[in-house]
Amino acid sequence: MQYKIQGTPSAEVSAEQAETWHGVIAASLGHDLPGQPVPTRAQLTVPPLHSRRLVWMAAEPGGPVAGVASLRLFDAPGMDHLSELDLHVRPELRRGGAGSLLLAAAVAAARAEGRRAMITAVAAGGPGDAFCAARGLRRVLTLRHLLLDLAQADCREADTARPGYDLAFWTGTVPDGLADAFAEAKNAMNDMPTGEMDYGARRWDAAAVREMAKVLADRRDTLLTLAALHGETMAGYTEIVIRSGERRRAAQYDTAVVPAHRGHGLGLWLKATMVRRLRVEHPDLAEVETDTAEDNVHMLAVNERLGYRAHRSTHEYQFDL
């Protein structure tokens, strides 16, 4: 096959391009991860938080688009060395060179942008594993994806009071009075296990947490947050996102407890209480999916207590540029 990149790398994605991108990814994920929710078109057209994105499409002259790739270039201080690749090729057109062509374009762009590392995620045991290994990418992290049946979840910890702690719940953007405390709590995520990945660390402030909520709102996703307050300090929080158009499965986003408040079972308390709210306020939801680093023993234990079960695994690879 003589695939070629269509046009120059673009940061602006038209509705037509988004439709093509969505079709390729739906075909790719439908083959490799049947039953897994497909990203929405808005996830390409809405700019990601504190980063830029370049997009490529590969096709034979006059032929259909065989593969697509997007490269996220992080701009936030502490992460501006990093780029993240998402690459998909239609199953029936694989092994024809489209993937290699797209990878080469992304690597060249990441180097031109002065990035030190490029990471990408693939389904464990799938074709992406062999593709990455054959092209010199290094496996740096394994994520376990878990599913929680909301009807069967063990929420008894929600009934156990945590003296000195109060709960606050909101939908969408954090209330102004909690924004600074929420940003400080967000910074607790910087010590999450990342294996051998050169991920870096970012500093959250009130403006950044508001911007994150706006990105999700622009995608028409629903962001739910439950926080544990200790006086004026936010000791921990958990976030759930219900993607636009999704009726069955919610996605677990961050759960974090700040170091000074660890050891009191706050993470389990928050997650169990959130499940209770989901049952009442979103009765159509059947399950929650989360991903946890294989070496994050504490959070894996919390999830097991709630009733999460193994679903699949993802391998994170890194290209040292």
TrEMBL record:
Residues 8-162, 176-321 form the N-acetyltransferase domain. Keywords: Acyltransferase, Transferase. It comes from the Bacteria. GO terms for molecular function: acyltransferase activity, transferring groups other than amino-acyl groups. Transmembrane segments: none annotated. This is GNAT superfamily N-acetyltransferase.
